[in-house]
Amino acid sequence: MSPAPKTPRKKTAKKAPAKRKTAAPRKKATSRKPVSKGGGRRPPSKRTTAKRKTTRKRAGASGGGRFARFSVVLGGLALLALAGLTFSWPDFGETPQRSAEPAVTESRSVEVAKQEPARQTTPPKAETKAKAPAKPSEEPKAPVEQAAPPPEPAKVQPEKTVEELAVAPPKPVAEPVWKRYAATHKAKPGQPMIAIVLDDLGPNKQRTRNATDLPGPLTLAFLPYAKDLPAQTARARQRGHELLIHMPMEPKDLAGNNPGENALLTSLSDAEIKRRLEWALDRFPAYVGMNNHMGSAFTANRQKMDLVMDRLADRGALFLDSVTNGRTQGAKAARAAGIPSVSRDIFLDHHGDDPGLVLKQLAKVEAVAKKQGYAIAIGHPHDGTVTALELWIPDALARGFALVPVSALVEDPTPPGLRG
To answer: CA 290 to CA 310: how far, in whole Å?
Structure first.
């Protein structure tokens, strides 16, 4: 028997030996070519290895990533430069000028940004990092001042009619100094008033203090060339006394009697007399007026006395005429200038400062006060005069006399009559 014919086996295609996978060379994303769908080797862009996926993601990212890294590095350099500038710049209390290095870096970054406008895809975090926070040593910027609101239009006041102007009260006038600095007193209507004036105060401080310590109110006249007048006159005011400027004026016997520094002389020009008056009026404050020291020659000259009264009128001061000359023009010049004035009645110590003699003169003062309602006596701070006044003042008050300052006795030109 012949052997059965062998069934021919189907020829199967031999599998090609597996090729070892090798890493394909990296190619730039821009140089890859599309691969056809049919057969062939699997394109590198579809490999499944995780490492290759990461590589392709980084490689396939847009150019913005590189620009972002470049911006971060550039911002870090700018921060370092700014920090070095801040800690090395001396603190002079003012904001220092910026150095040239950050300005160059900023200009370069602006040039790069202009050259690559399409790649400006910097994420917000990178921009935040690029801005350097304010250092503690830097001064904070001053807040921006808000514009002030426009001023409101002024309200237009309606004009007053003629009838309203006719009944409107007059504007208040500044009070003259003879009223503003007048000392207070306790005189009652009908009570005889006596004003005691003590001259030549200031040069001898101890005698001035003794006179200031007397009970008052007295009227104390200070020589303008004395020292420490503001302090001495302030103490007198605290004790309740009234102040006068005791102005030196020319006596008849100028060679034998020196009136003192900056005295008013008839031989002086009008300009020099005004200058000396201004000097005396500015030596101390809070006086009510002026009286003359000596001045038997000067007070008899009407033209010169008019100059004095005009200046006292500007200050609102009064004038007490010491009456050292029977032909004095003081009262007439004062009335012509419209200022209040009064004249001396009795000298207390003209013939000596013995306390007994002074007390006799004070008795004459009482008689004048009873006759005309008031009297003005002038003395000096001699020891005997002060001693006599210490005895007489409390006794006179107990017998019904009122001790008043000179300002209470002058005639006011505006409403005539006695004050007090």
So the answer is: 13
Q: What is the residue whose two structure tokens read 């001898």?
A: 204
Reported as a single tens digit per residue, the pLDDT across 221-264 is 999 999 999 999 999 999 999 999 999 999 999 999 999 999 99
- Show the tokens assigned to 124: 């917000």
Q: Please give the structure tokens belonging to residue 355.
A: 């306390």
Amino acid making up residue 405: P
State how far the Cα of 198 lies from the Cα of 379, in Å rounded to an integer. 5
The β-bridge partners of 195 are: 376
Distance CA 59, CA 43 (A): 16
- pLDDT tens, residue by residue, 363-376: 999 999 999 999 99
* 194 backbone dihedrals φ, ψ, rounded to 5°: -130, 130
CA distances from 276 to 31, 225, 235, 300, 341 (A): 110, 11, 26, 19, 21
CA distance 150 to 159: 26
**H or E stretch at 373:** none
Strands 219-222 and 402-403: unpaired
Residue type, position 108, single letter: R
Q: Is 193 helix (H, G, I), strand (E, B) or coil?
A: strand
